[in-house]
């Protein structure tokens, strides 16, 4: 694929708005890793209710491995796809279970969305949709199955809608994160039909899906990398 | 519950280290991956490599079946959690003697994804990888959805047959076919009497009321077919056998391999009580037990209960079952 060429006024506009380049990904990985690490015990506790109690450690350790790739900065801001592929390999080397392959596939698909170079932030829904698409493809789950997709899919939709309505890129990202959070809360009303909790069937009712909760933390990390939270969105 | 434990986060690494020290005649640690165990002498040039892997907490499965004419390399996961794709890939590489690798594993979402990703990466390196996915657990899905069934203790017989076939110098396709044939001839059922607790979690993963038993329970406490009053040992044995015979094509004159495994906390003597009844009931139906295995072959931490596995034999499977093999979990003398 040829590189995406932008220049002059377009480039200036894009630089002002921000882009998903390696510097952005570094901020994203670090913010997501910090949020997951802070909620490590809470996620393990949630997982203990309906799973094996290690989701917090898996996610926090996996994103710590990814964040370690960008410690000290990166010198090639124009090749975020390569960094995304490294992130997928790092995650896959550290995390097993189902979340390892699910996020590794998400990152590989997101890398494809960056193959033509950095993506301007008003196209961030494409990046998020690629992540969600990778998770859906690998896990063969759909909306309402009480999985991480119940956070990812509403987030993608909210980001698209916000930008269509003329919101700023940072407002769109934070609305996506808020929708992910609401989606994660809603999983408490769902009966698991995929993943480890599926073996509990109706026993899973009343518990939030830990994978959806960690997905909301990742999307908050993404939003944090885009910009500060605008007043009045999320909590 | 009281445990021998240091830090829950270290339990898997310490298990693997102790295991390798205890069985150094048969196995070794992968030099770069702490979560891969390799058979001494593997890879054997020209021999098809046998790989498996799965979550920890099922010891002696999965690591215990690493050895001579058995499994060449095993990927080790967290407790009840699939190994990483990287560990499966390292196990595949370690087992590859240049003639391809068969990954013989159980039907669980995480294992399916990680094996698939590892197999694709290995293929890019020029290693031919074929898989067989064990689905011997009868109660985990109805017969018309057999592909959804989970793999349980029948995996051990699949490894034995696959390992023996590979040792004969068969091609990777022939090894896959033999392992698949063993699996297709095998059915398992579990009965749970009490749950188990993951140390990091700290509470039992399900509940079985006193005086009750869960028929068809899975290897991680997956719900079974029904929870009923606890019967006598003979009553439990009869029920397990009924479930197997209802799902299996077995009749007078057939020969079988029977494997009765404890789930961790059940005393071994009770497994013999079960086997005593199972054998006499099979005899009454003129089904001959050609080869029995009774003991803790595939456990689930300290779950209380047992699994029954029955493999229907033909001359071909009998010969492969009888072939010499040595592993910490299972040995067959020449």
TrEMBL record, chain B:
Give the source's domain of life in one word: Bacteria
Its GO biological process annotations read: glycerol catabolic process
Q: What cellular component terms from Gene Ontology apply here? A: cytosol
Instruction: Show where the DhaK domain sits.
Output: 7-330
Task: Determine if Disulfide bond is one of this entry's keywords.
Answer: no
- One Pfam family name is Dak1
Q: Does the keyword Kinase apply?
A: yes
Query: What GO MF annotations does this protein's record show?
Result: glycerone kinase activity
Tell me which UniProt keywords the record has, alphabetically.
Kinase, Transferase
- This protein is called Dihydroxyacetone kinase subunit DhaK
Natural source organism: Histidinibacterium lentulum
